[in-house]
Amino acid sequence: MTNAAFATSASTPSRAEPIPVSKILPWAVFGGLMLVLTVYFVGAEEGATSLIGGSVVHEFVHDGRHLLGFPCH
Amino acid sequence: MVGNLLLRGMMVGVLAGLLAFCFARTFGEPWVDYAIAFEEHASHAAGAAGGMEEPEIVSRATQAGLGLFTGLVIYGAAVGGLIALAFAFANGRLGRLSPRSVAALIATLGYVAIVIVPQLKYPANPPAVGSADTIVARTELFFAMLAFSVALMIASVMLARRLAERIGGWNGATVAAIVYVSIVAVMFAALPDIEEIPASFSPAALWNFRIASIGVQAVLWSVVGLAFGAVTEYAARRENAPRHTAGAAALR
Ligand SMILES: [Zn+2]
């Protein structure tokens, strides 16, 4: 930690060192999956497709779906 | 490091979702109510010819309250997470931009690619405007437009970075923006239009609903972009502070 802090202290304080892509990728995959899943339930479940039966999820987030601009009825 | 950024983005996104809920409740819900009244009126007219009432699974009060709140907070967290991940890639890679500028730029470009461009082609509709028969086609077209717009935006940013080395940052960004807009225009012309608005639906109500929808998203994206940048810069300053005072560094 201290070594890293001193190593970056030479550069300008406003500009950060880029995070290596290899360190971002696992998080990007994990985050991307979560993202797709949440957007799916807010934006598309029980519209054109359905993962869980019934339309409770659809009806519950229905106003949000319309106001966020997702296609609905 | 990236995990922290992701968590920070999602927390800021929850806050943004909260504010977006206040906006949506005030400026969006009246037009949702108008559309539902219109829909009920239309189905009553049809019902006289032998239709039947749809059962109400979730009450209107819940839909416009807790349901809307939940939807916007979850969507806000997703937007926050997306901006955080894009920030992890972009920070330190976009010329000499400060973390705060990078966050604001990402939120702006994200808003253009994810909200404005898809909505210009396939605008938000209140209930009662879409036809149930075309929901599959409409969903496919909307998400195709969205995916294409996002991919094109990423490609344009990469193009701008490459051009910046040769013709300067401002010129590079201008050329990349022209390329982005031109390809979007071709895409708009190529994809089919959707015309399903009932003739008797109030144009003013439709306009107000769509403006409210754009506004909900504007609140969400601007709050995430600004708050994420502010928190990140504050955290970086706290991390860097000890190096200015020798005593504090020794205490660590
Ligand atoms: Zn609907």
Strand content range of chain A: under 5%
**How many strands, which pairing sense, and closed or not: the largest β-sheet of chain B?**
none
Total count of strands of chain A: 0
Q: How much of the residues of chain B is beta strand, in percent?
A: under 5%
Q: How much helix, percentage-wise, in residues of chain B?
A: over 70%
Record field, number of beta strands of chain B: 0
Helical residues, percent of chain A? 55-70%
Instruction: Tell me the distance between the termini of chain B.
Output: 20 Å
Overall shape of chain B: it is: flat
Q: Largest interface by residue count?
A: A-B, 49 and 66 residues
Principal-axis shape of chain A: elongated
Our Rg estimate of chain B from Cα atoms comes to 22 Å
| Biggest sheet layout of chain A | none
Q: What do you see in this structure?
A:
The complex is a heterodimer of chains A (73) and B (252). Chain A has helices spanning 2-8, 21-43, 56-60, 62-67. With 73 residues, chain A is mainly α. Chain A has one domain (21-73). By secondary structure, chain B is mainly alpha-helical. Chain B has a domain at 2-49 and 58-130 and 197-251. In chain B, helix 2 (60-90) packs across helix 3 (99-121), helix 3 (99-121) crosses helix 4 and helix 4 packs antiparallel against helix 5. The model of chain B has no long low-confidence stretch (mean pLDDT 91). At the A-B interface, helix 1, helix 2, helix 3 and helix 4 of A face helix 1, helix 2, helix 3, helix 4 and helix 6 of B. Zinc ion is lined by residues 62, 66, 72-73 of chain A.
